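User: Hi! I have a protein structure encoded as tokens and I'd like to know what sequence might fold into it. I'm fairly new to this, so please keep things simple.
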């Protein structure tokens, strides 16, 4: 599981579920949100419908990450490029072009794998920088001048070698795709227009992703002043990064792709576009980049909510409630048909019939609610589907997704969940840390395939859960708090403006069952909020705390 702040108001959780397990497997994801009482969220003001409106469940088909050099090899069967080349051979050999939908999906899959590979390469370089791969000095110990200088030069050379290798692999993978695309150009008019659009969009998207990562790496190289040690390491590394970025910028500008220019040129372009009634260059860049990303990834996403079985269950329960209400209403009208009784008795029976008829609707509603809670284990049950399944060779995949959410009592939680929540608490006083607990449950079940062929090796389901905290934020106080206090050092009263934040703890239990084998693990996150945004998300790792003896008076 991976967690990161997606934007100001959304936290994204990512889960990867391999598809090549064979037979039946099951994944249970239990997310427990511990919301402090001072946030103000409770079952009375946060309904199940609001929860599902704030929690976006996305699922897409993805492939296991592969190195960029393997991705660039069109002869390697694990690279989507090999399937694109095979389709090109069929176009050349056959009188009628084969269906192009599988080719479009493989091109999009290649673009996503390229983005993942570039991200991993540059994360590895960033970790090397953090470990001192740039030759920067350690914080706590400094070697002798001569020894330290030699060590820095050695580490700098090693990092530059890693950097050059990473840049070459990214460049080679991108141009491997472009060479295959060039071989398709003579046959584009024989294929649907969509194929050319997908190739162009994927090419542009990959170039923009690479440029973004290059810019971030260049900024990271100069982030630590200790790296400017007179060896020219930062300048040399930045020059290599900038050379590849300049090459990509020229390529995009030549073919009409997105390419930001300097501030003056951009302002002139904005003025020209506004004069023509068009969107400014800055807005156009971000808007088109967002559309490109969506276009490349859209075919890989699967539909997950909306189930007929759930609709049938609701209708059946409603029918039972309506039947009971109708019986009650019929029974209530029987006394009104009785004549010859004393007037006072008739009035009493008439009043009772009116009350019974009024209660009819409440009987229907309460009966439906009572039966639904016991007849329905999950709120949403559906079978995933998507246009990419058959094209990727996993048309026989049958996966059921079930979701449920409830407010639960902290005392009703399992002991292991309570134990993990109690680890490394910010505030330990029990009376101060009363919390509401929201339990979100998702079960993903893969059934044995009976049609459509076996599941292809190397594919996985990428399960995304985006948590929008808007209903949390609207109840919070201002992000800054004025505090009046006594300063013993100055022997005077002071006023300080301190950040006001709120902590929402999230404990996630992952339980995977394959055949009879069960694997389970827990992840504990602390989401720090203020009135405006998600400040950060920290992973809380268990640690053994040493026992401290109380001070002796």
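Assistant: Happy to help. Inverse folding works backwards from shape to sequence: for each of the 553 positions I chose a residue that suits the local structure. Here it is:
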């Amino acid at each position: 599981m991976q967690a990161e702040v997606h934007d100001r108001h959304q936290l994204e959780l990512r889960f990867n579920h391999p598809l090549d397990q064979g037979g039946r497997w099951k994944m249970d994801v239990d997310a427990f949100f511990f919301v402090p009482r001072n946030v103000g969220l409770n079952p009375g003001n946060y309904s199940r419908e609001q929860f599902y409106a704030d929690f976006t469940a996305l699922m897409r088909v993805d492939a296991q990450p592969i190195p960029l050099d393997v991705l660039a090899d069109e002869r390697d069967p694990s690279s989507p490029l090999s399937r694109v080349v095979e389709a090109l051979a069929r176009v050349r050999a056959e009188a009628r072009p084969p269906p192009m939908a599988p080719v479009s999906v493989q091109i999009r899959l290649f673009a996503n794998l390229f983005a993942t590979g570039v991200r991993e390469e540059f994360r590895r370089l960033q970790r090397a920088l953090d470990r001192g791969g740039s030759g920067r000095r350690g914080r706590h110990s400094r070697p002798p001048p001569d020894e330290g200088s030699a060590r820095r030069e050695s580490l700098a050379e090693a990092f530059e070698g890693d950097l050059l290798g990473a840049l070459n692999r990214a460049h080679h993978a991108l141009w491997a795709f472009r060479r295959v695309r060039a071989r398709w150009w003579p046959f584009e008019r024989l294929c649907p227009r969509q194929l050319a659009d997908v190739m162009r969009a994927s090419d542009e998207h990959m170039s923009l992703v690479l440029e973004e990562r290059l810019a971030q790496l260049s900024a990271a190289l100069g982030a630590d002043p200790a790296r400017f040690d007179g060896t020219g390491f930062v300048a040399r590394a930045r020059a290599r990064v900038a050379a590849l970025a300049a090459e990509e910028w020229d390529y995009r500008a030549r073919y009409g792709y997105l390419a930001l220019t300097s501030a003056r040129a951009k302002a002139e372009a904005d003025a020209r576009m506004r004069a023509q009634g068009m969107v400014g260059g800055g807005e156009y860049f971000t808007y088109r980049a967002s559309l490109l990303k969506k276009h490349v990834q859209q075919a890989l996403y699967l539909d997950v909510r909306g189930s007929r079985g759930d609709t049938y269950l609701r209708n059946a329960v409603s029918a039972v409630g309506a039947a009971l209400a109708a019986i009650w209403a019929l029974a209530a009208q029987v006394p009104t048909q009785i004549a010859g009784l004393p007037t006072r008795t008739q009035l009493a029976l008439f009043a009772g019939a009116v009350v019974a008829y009024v209660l009819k609707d409440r009987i229907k509603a309460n009966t439906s609610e009572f039966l639904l809670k016991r007849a329905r284990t999950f709120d949403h049950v559906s079978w995933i589907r998507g246009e990419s399944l058959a094209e990727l060779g996993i048309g026989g995949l049958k996966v059921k997704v079930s979701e449920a959410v409830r407010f639960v009592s902290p005392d009703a939680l399992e002991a292991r969940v309570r134990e993990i929540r109690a680890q490394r608490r910010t505030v330990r006083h029990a009376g101060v840390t009363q919390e509401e607990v929201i339990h979100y449950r998702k079960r993903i079940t893969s059934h044995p395939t009976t049609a459509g062929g076996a599941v292809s090796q190397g594919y996985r389901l990428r399960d995304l859960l985006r948590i929008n905290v808007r209903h949390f934020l609207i109840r919070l106080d201002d992000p800054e708090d004025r505090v009046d206090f006594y300063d013993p050092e100055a022997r005077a009263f002071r006023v300080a403006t301190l950040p006001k934040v709120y902590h929402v703890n999230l404990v996630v239990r992952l339980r995977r069952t394959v055949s009879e084998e069960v694997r389970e693990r827990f992840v504990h996150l602390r989401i720090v909020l203020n009135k405006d945004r998600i400040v950060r998300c920290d992973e809380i790792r268990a640690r053994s705390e040493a026992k401290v003896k109380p001070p002796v008076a």
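A useful reference point when you look it over: The two ends are 48 Å apart (CA to CA). Feel free to ask if any position seems puzzling.
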